[in-house]
Design brief:
This protein is α+β, with helices and mostly antiparallel strands and 461 residues long. It has four domains: 3-65; 119-217, PAS domain (Beta-Lactamase); 222-296; 304-460, Histidine kinase-like ATPase, C-terminal domain (Heat Shock Protein 90, 2-Layer Sandwich). The protein has helices at residues 3-18, 24-65, 72-118, 137-143, 153-157, 162-173, 219-265, 270-296, 308-322, 341-359, 417-427; strands at residues 122-127, 132-135, 177-184, 192-202, 208-217, 304-307, 327-334, 336-339, 367-377, 380-389, 431-436, 442-449, 456-460. It has a six-stranded mixed sheet with strand order 11-12-10-9-7-13, with helices on one face.
Length: 461
């Protein structure tokens, strides 16, 4: 018996001991029954308690796995953990999608930069404040200006530039300019012809927030068109003037013959002097007509291989004899040109003679240099011949008329020398340009297609 049961039975035993002797047997029987009942109750209590403990142990995993209404705190905890787990999974998915979208955006940005950088057309982006926010290498090359980015367009392109005017009008009014052709003067001083398309940048139908400008360099195309037009003009001029010049020569021959007869009969006096003046003027006019025929007559160009180094040697020797005070020399590389040797020699002779006459009175003595260079372009291999001197240079107002027939700055010139040079070079598929040198003097540049023969180096004094 446990101590707690002993405590319960002790008062009952005391009561039985104090009872009367006659009733001892009956009281003992009742007491024994009560004791037995209490022992059975205690046994049942302990058995039920042990059974409940065992059942709780068996049901504990099930309750923990599937919390029900009987365990609300565990159910709420499990539910919150499930929600948190789903939120974490969604957060990881969002991070993955964000990273993927950022990678795609970086790829698109790099692709856009590569396309802009490698596109053959020039691209300028000008914002609403007039700042060039972007410019690709083709734009810098077409404009002849480096580091265009983050500069004001009017300052970079020039305040008086036609391109500046078009960009400003587009920003102000939103006007679109398609396939415009403008002249541009880069810092190098030459003239470039640009094809321009300018369009405004808008947000929907709102106000203009910038302008996009596409540029293409049409300088070579304009020069080619000019050469083609020149060829057509020369052909038409030759057909028209050949007959006129022939009649002029016949008339001059008749006048000269009569003048000679008069001069022979009148040996002294005014008549003889007048006849002499007539002969002098007819010879002068005959020379002009002959030179004009050289310019206007259609050229019959052969297709021989002409080594330029030997042609230049002869030109230098001939001009050197006429101008002994002028130092002439050649340098660089010279190849072979497919064409007519006599005509090419005449063109070079005219240029070198003009250069020597221009610098004959130079303070430190005249100098004329013929320099040969090679060029490789998409159109093939080219020979450049530069003829430059240390004379006073070309007057600014003379550039536009320099190759026009009968335009001259010399007192006794016919004005056909440079016109003939241009005609010969153009007929050989080349071009001729004239510039003033920064040091002093003028420079004439001939560009001719190279022939089939390998080039020859030259450096002669």
């Amino acid at each position: 018996m446990s101590p707690s049961h002993a405590m319960i039975h002790a008062p009952i035993l005391t009561l039985l001991q104090r009872s009367a002797p006659g009733a001892n047997l009956w009281v003992i029987a009742i007491g024994s029954a009560l004791i037995l009942l209490l022992m059975i109750s205690a046994a049942v209590f302990f058995i039920r308690r042990a059974f409940r403990h065992t059942r709780e142990q068996q049901l504990a995993p099930v309750i923990d796995a599937t919390p029900g209404v009987e365990n609300p705190s565990a159910f709420m905890t499990a539910s919150m953990q499930g929600v948190i787990q789903k939120l974490r999974e969604q957060e990881r998915e969002l991070e993955r999608l964000h990273k993927l979208e950022k990678e795609r955006a970086d790829i698109r940005e790099r692709l856009s930069e590569e396309v802009t950088r490698n596109m053959p057309a020039g691209l300028l982006l000008v914002n609403a404040t007039g700042i060039i926010s972007s410019a690709n290498p083709a734009a810098e090359q077409a404009l002849g200006i480096l580091a265009l980015g983050f500069r004001r367009y009017s300052e970079a392109l020039g305040e008086e530039s036609e391109l500046t005017r078009l960009v400003g009008e587009c920003l102000a009014s939103g006007k679109i300019f398609r396939r415009e052709e403008v002249e541009h003067h880069p810092p190098s001083g030459d003239v470039r012809h640009l094809g321009v398309t300018i369009s405004p940048i808008r947000k929907g139908e709102g106000k203009v927030t910038g302008a996009i400008c596409l540029l293409s360099d049409l300088t070579q195309l304009a020069a080619l068109q000019k050469q083609v037009q020149l060829k057509d003009n020369l052909a038409a001029l030759g057909e028209l003037s050949a007959g006129i010049a022939h009649e002029f020569k016949n008339a001059l021959a008749t006048i000269s013959g009569y003048a000679q007869m008069i001069q022979a009969e009148a040996t002294v006096g005014d008549v003889a002097d007048s006849a002499g003046k007539i002969l002098e003027q007819t010879r002068s006019i005959t020379h002009v007509v002959t030179e004009f025929l050289k310019y206007a007559r259609p050229l019959d160009i052969s297709n021989d291989s002409v080594p330029l180094d030997s042609v230049i040697e002869r030109v230098i020797a001939e001009v050197g004899e006429a101008h002994p005070r002028v130092r002439l020399r050649s340098e660089g590389q010279f190849g072979c040109i497919a064409g007519d040797e006599g005509l090419l020699r005449q063109a070079l002779l005219n240029l070198v003679r003009n250069a020597a006459e221009a610098c004959a009175d130079a303070p430190n003595g005249g100098r004329v240099v013929l320099r040969g260079e090679f060029l490789n372009t998409d159109d093939g291999a080219w020979q450049r011949v530069l003829v430059f001197d240390n004379g006073p240079g070309i007057a600014p107002g003379a550039f536009r008329k320099l190759f026009n027939p009968f335009f001259t700055t010399k007192a006794s010139g016919t004005g056909l020398g440079l016109a003939v040079v241009q005609k010969i070079i153009v007929q050989h598929g080349g071009a001729v340009e004239a510039h003033n040198r920064p040091e002093s003097g003028a420079a004439f540049i001939l560009t001719l297609p190279l022939g089939r023969t390998s080039p020859v180096a030259a450096d002669k004094a």
